[in-house]
Amino acid sequence: MDAMEGAGMIDAIFSNNIYVATKKMLDVSSLRHEAIATNIANIETPGYKRVDLPKSFSEQFATQLKSGNANEINVPKLAPDSEAQSSRMDGNNVDMDKELLAMSSNSMQYDTLTEFASNSLKQLKMAITGQV
């Protein structure tokens, strides 16, 4: 394989719609982990309102991914969770059990995405060196 073919393969890996979407989802997963950690850290803060990704993000992500251009996917900002209800007198609406469950689920998603990205980088290494 000559240098031009190798460069073409490298560009193909990094511009692949699925690889780009995976990188974006890793950013989103990291942001969600930050939100969950913030919620847990504020579990005893009176009046604290749980934050998370906007509920509309999943739908927007799917629509943008279907359009075929993952580069257009924007990582959202955290927002107060308007659906979270408070059962506490102090107005805090963080539920530790739900946060821990969300953290576990988010960690599994992050691990899966990391594995996929890692496999893409292994392909890149093979393109550069000709070895696995």
Structure, described:
By secondary structure, the chain is mainly α. It has one domain. Helices cover 62% and strands 3% of the residues. The protein contains 4 helices and 2 strands. It has helices at residues 3-15, 17-41, 57-66, 96-129, and strands at residues 51-52, 79-80. A two-stranded antiparallel sheet has the order 1-2. The relative contact order is 0.19. The mean pLDDT is 84.
C-alpha Rg, in Å?
Answer: 19 Å
Approximate shape: elongated
Distance between the termini: 15 Å
* Portion in beta strands: under 5%
- Give the helices and strands as they follow along the chain: HHEHEH
Structural class: mainly alpha
Helix tally equals 4
Can you count the beta strands?
2
Task: Output the strand order for the largest sheet.
Answer: 1-2
Approximately how much helix is present in the residues?
Answer: 55-70%
Unreliable residue runs: none
Quickly count the domains.
Answer: 1
Summarize this structure as a short list of keywords or feature phrases:
mainly alpha; two-stranded antiparallel ribbon; 132 residues; 62% helix; elongated
Describe, in short, the structure shown.
62% of the residues lie in helices and 3% in strands.
Helix and strand topology:
Layout: H1 3-15, H2 17-41, E1 51-52, H3 57-66, E2 79-80, H4 96-129
Antiparallel strand pairs: 1-2
